[in-house]
Design brief:
Structural class: alpha+beta
CATH topology: Alpha-Beta Plaits
CATH class: Alpha Beta
Bound molecules: iron/sulfur cluster
Strand order of the largest sheet: 1-4
Keywords: Iron, Iron-sulfur, Metal-binding
Radius of gyration: 13 Å
CATH architecture: 2-Layer Sandwich
Order of helices and strands: EHEEHE
Pfam families: Fer4_7 (PF12838)
Largest sheet: 2 strands, antiparallel
Number of helices: 2
Number of domains: 1
GO molecular function, one term: metal ion binding
Protein name: 4Fe-4S dicluster domain-containing protein
InterPro entries: 4Fe4S_Fe-S-bd, 4Fe4S_Fe_S_CS
Number of strands: 4
Distance between the termini: 37 Å
Length: 83
């Protein structure tokens, strides 16, 4: 299993520094996770270290494509529901 970094990533480098498996590196457009190295931190941490430090909502997705930091989770403001 592995997570994925998507276009919302602002390439701040924070996750690269905390990944215990050196699974994160700079890609052509944004940082990327090597699926062969990412263990979802399951072996050594209660939470994925990349998602714990990432300041951008929606930048890292789980294996189902759901954001680890969903809208509203970091800034505390839930997105408006369309009328
Ligand atoms: S979940 Fe853990 S192992 Fe996987 S990329 Fe994030 S910090 Fe690295
Ligand atoms: S911490 Fe988030 S925004 Fe920063 S490089 Fe990693 S995925 Fe991109």
């Amino acid at each position: 299993m592995a997570f994925e970094i998507v276009a919302a990533c602002v390439s701040c480098t924070a996750c690269e520094m905390v990944c215990p498996n050196q699974a994160i590196s700079a890609g052509e457009l944004h940082f990327e996770i090597d699926p062969g190295l990412c263990t979802e931190c399951a072996e050594s941490y209660p939470d994925p270290q990349c998602a714990s430090i990432c300041p951008i909502e929606g930048a890292i997705l789980d294996e189902l494509g759901d954001p680890l930091n969903p809208p509203g989770s970091l800034i505390g403001i839930l997105p408006q529901v369309a009328a």
